[in-house]
Amino acid sequence: MVPPLCFQHLKQYWAMYRLRLIRKSCLTQIKLLGFDTRLCHSSRPPVDLIGINYPAETINGRKYRDNHQTSQMPLSKINHILKANEYSYKVNGYDGRNSVNSILGLDSNILASNALNEDRRSAATCLQSRGMLLGVFDGHAGYACAQAVSERLFYYIAVALLPVKTLMDIEDAVENERPVLPMLQWHKHPNDHTSRDSGKLYFNSLRTYWQERIDLEEDEDRDIQMALMNAFKRLDNDISLEAQVDFGVPFSHFTPLRVALSGCTACVVHVDGDDLHVANLGDSRAVLGVQEENGTWSAHTISNDHNAQNADELQRVLSEHPALEHKTVVKHDRLLGLLMPFRGFGDMKFKWSGEMLNRVYETRPDILSANEFKMLPPNYHTPPYLIAEPEVTIHTLRPKDKFLIMATDGLWELMHRQTVVQVIGEHLTGLHWQKPVSGLSFTLGQMHRLLQERKSRAIFALEDENSATHLIRHALGSDGFGTVDPRRLSNMLSLPQDLARMYRDDITIVVIHLNSANM
């Protein structure tokens, strides 16, 4: 016979066992939802980030703490992770055509969530035309498309911007095997990957583009808006054609077919003097940090998301297909019930004809990953459903425009745009933790906590010379009141890769510091 005390212990252990089973079941369901979300490039629901360390449970008057509790990561390791991919570039006072530049410099950073980071970034100075190009690219169904677009798009834009006479000189030099002056000066981090297997293919497609412009005597006359639109659409068309002509080498990460079947969104900025053009495709975003006369900061969004939350974009999609499809074209806020962004590069499974897709799936099943669709999307009747035509926004820079933030949706899912601008503005001015406290009544304990918070802010601000790094630190570690919680930040960076994707996406940020003195 078991003594009564042992029955009490068994009761407590049974309660703890049921609690852990419930937690395991919840995590499994979340993981399944997260798996579906990755396929569909969607955002995660809000999650209690601090809840990663399970709190103590009280059962029959006794406290039990789950053994998932982890020790806090040291600050040195946190900084090593956050700064591994940070990059900064300071612009001199003149661009390629000897005019005063409106960009002082840029800070960028990437923090991966996926085991293989699907985000990319690009920055380059136009050498044979004016201005700078900067972009962020958010890949899905793999990184192949984002990688290809991040390497190729700026060349297509440069070709679209160059006068026909310059293109003729370039073609003559190539034809006669003479050196060709570079079009772009790239600003890259050493960790930024470059694919080397497809260089010849990419060059031949680009050359065909400028040859066609020469044959048509097509001169853009510095119409930057049309140049951006034409470059986006032409590159996407070339990605499609390359995949149809040559299915590529099996198992290569950059085979044309793999690039075409994966996809990416893109947000690209062209800055020339006071003229700012933003070409956006999908749900990455560009936001201006504006400092008002009274010193306060405000956010001015200069791009629109292309998804179901944009009423105009939703109407555009519906208008391009028969009324009979209106209930299936967008389902559960996703294109054909599957894809969140309504515009993007690649994703030929939403663009090619059904016959072409079936031929690919039958002849090249090896090219498809375990997460990819191996059959036509449901209700696939009148493709294309996805377009690669960007929405171009034009803005004239003003003295109060201090910086521009470009980021993939991994940032905007965690932070509101006003908070993003506030964090960067205060980081640049360095005044937030120095402001005097007035008009408030504090107890001694509250004052002590306030001083500790300000000390923490000052430490983190001094740690981050790179504005993009500082923003990622706040995005992951914010306590909701403008302070970085070291424990929360440690938890988010300690998550294993298979779990991290449930809490956040890959984050890519480019912060452009504007030279407001010359506006």
UniProtKB/TrEMBL annotation:
Keyword hit for Kinase: no
Class of the enzyme per the UniProt entry, highest EC level: hydrolase
Obligatory cofactor(s): Mg(2+)
Pfam families named in the record: PP2C (PF00481)
Keyword Hydrolase: yes
Major site of localization recorded for this protein: mitochondrion
Catalytic activity: O-phospho-L-seryl-[pyruvate dehydrogenase E1 alpha subunit] + H2O = L-seryl-[pyruvate dehydrogenase E1 alpha subunit] + phosphate
Sequence ranges assigned to domain PPM-type phosphatase in this UniProt record: 103-514
Source domain of life: Eukaryota
Keywords: Hydrolase, Magnesium, Manganese, Metal-binding, Mitochondrion, Protein phosphatase, Transit peptide
GO MF entry, a single one: [pyruvate dehydrogenase (acetyl-transferring)]-phosphatase activity
One GO term describing the cellular component: mitochondrion
Function: Mitochondrial enzyme that catalyzes the dephosphorylation and concomitant reactivation of the alpha subunit of the E1 component of the pyruvate dehydrogenase complex (PDC), thereby stimulating the conversion of pyruvate into acetyl-CoA. Acts as a crucial regulator of T cell metabolism and function, with a particular focus on T-helper Th17.
Entry similarity comment: Belongs to the PP2C family.
Protein name: [Pyruvate dehydrogenase [acetyl-transferring]]-phosphatase 2, mitochondrial
Encoding gene, per UniProt annotation: si:ch211-15p9.2
